[in-house]
Amino acid sequence: MTPAGTVPARPRDLEGLTAVVLGAGSIGAGWGIGKAVCLLFARAGAHVVAADRDLASAEETRDLIRREDGSAQAVGVDVADDAGLAACLTAVIAERGGIDILYFNVGIGKAGPSTETSPADWRRISDANLTALHLAAMTVVPSMRARHRGVILATASIAGLRDVGYPHLAYGATKAAVIQYLRLLAVENAPYGIRANTIVPGLIDTPRIEKTVAGAYAGDLERMKALRASQCPLGRMGNAFDVAEAALFLASDRAAYVTGTELLIDGGLAATARGPSLG
Ligand SMILES: NC(=O)c1ccc[n+]([C@@H]2O[C@H](COP(=O)([O-])OP(=O)(O)OC[C@H]3O[C@@H](n4cnc5c(N)ncnc54)[C@H](O)[C@@H]3O)[C@@H](O)[C@H]2O)c1
Q1: Which of 123, 127, 166, 195 shows the greatest Cβ crowding within 10 Å of its Cβ?
Q2: How many angstroms is it from 22 CA to the middle of ligand 1?
Q3: How far apart are the two ends of the chain, measured CA to CA in Å?
């Protein structure tokens, strides 16, 4: 048993590397996926650039890392701002001599009937979830190619593979595109020493679900959490660190022969035949 507050010894698989995490905060108090990814990357020895639209949230992530004597900086950037995103990544490349790991963790959506998703909603969601991924990848790929190394990862979602029990069309469609985007990016860039993979979380217990999913359960958080847990063969929702452990593996040389694929972190949910039900 690890005494509370101590950090168990871990392999320093990312020693000396620079990792940029876009969407490094969380939209509520507690552990979001980006925050946990940043912490595990830093514990593995990486210098982490924690970037988020919400600068205070990115700073919280940075401070959590520094409190453990890890190396991190915080940046405020809205990935939907093309020029701002490119400038942020270009600055890191210039300052650090390159980016070894780009982790794209931003994901927004609009739950509810698809007829209520306007073209403006669609563009907003695709811009943040997909167009920004392309822009970020295209900004880092040239220098990764020049150094003949680099890892690009993104967080997709089980909603990109199947129905999740309530309508979430633009979110699911863009997350499906994220998976295929990184597969094709991986193939195109494999000859240049770049690996690209997607992490596909299932139903994860992060602060976000109380804000973005609870509406589908009429705001009944307890019922939402119990139903989400009961849908997973392992009998619980995942947590941010379940996902971050997979990110750490894929970011490291332990995954040197893994590219163009996706890793499901879903407690077995995708293997079930019956769609999750709110009833
Ligand atoms: N929680 C789940 O059940 C779950 C399941 C599957 C996939 N995911 C995906 O995992 C990722 C992280 O989810 P989370 O649950 O930790 O939620 P989260 O919403 O708390 O984390 C996303 C972070 O991205 C930031 N962000 C949003 N829009 C941005 C923008 N335009 N520019 C820069 N930053 C922006 C937010 O401020 C937040 O800090 C998302 O991509 C989400 O779609 C979550």
Answers
A1: 195
A2: 9
A3: 39
Q: Which of 135, 147, 146 is nearest to 185 (CA)?
A: 135
Nearest CA, atom 13, ligand 1: 33
**In the CATH scheme, what is the homologous superfamily, with its name and number, of domain 18-206+239-264?**
NAD(P)-binding Rossmann-like Domain (3.40.50.720)
Residue whose entry in the numeric block shows the structure tokens 């750490």: 248
Please give the single-letter amino acid code of residue 134. H
Q: Which atom of ligand 1 is nearest to the CA of 33?
A: 16
Q: Whose CA is nearest to atom 28 of ligand 1?
A: 106
Structure token digits, residue 77: 């950037």
Q: Which residue's alpha carbon is nearest to atom 3 within ligand 1?
A: 204
> What sign does the dihedral 210-213-215-216 (CA atoms) show?
negative
Contact between 250 and 258 (Cβ < 8 Å): yes
* Cα 67–Cα 68–Cα 69 angle in degrees, nearest 5: 90
Ligand 1: residue of 33, 37, 158 to mutate (most ligand atoms within 8 A of CB) is 33
Residues 92-147: tens digit of each pLDDT: 999 999 999 999 999 999 999 999 999 999 999 999 999 999 999 999 999 999 99
pTM for this structure? 0.96
What's the CA-to-centroid distance between 104 and ligand 1, angstroms? 10
* Residue matched to tokens 């970020």: 136
Amino acid 66 reads R
Q: Tell me 204's DSSP state.
A: B
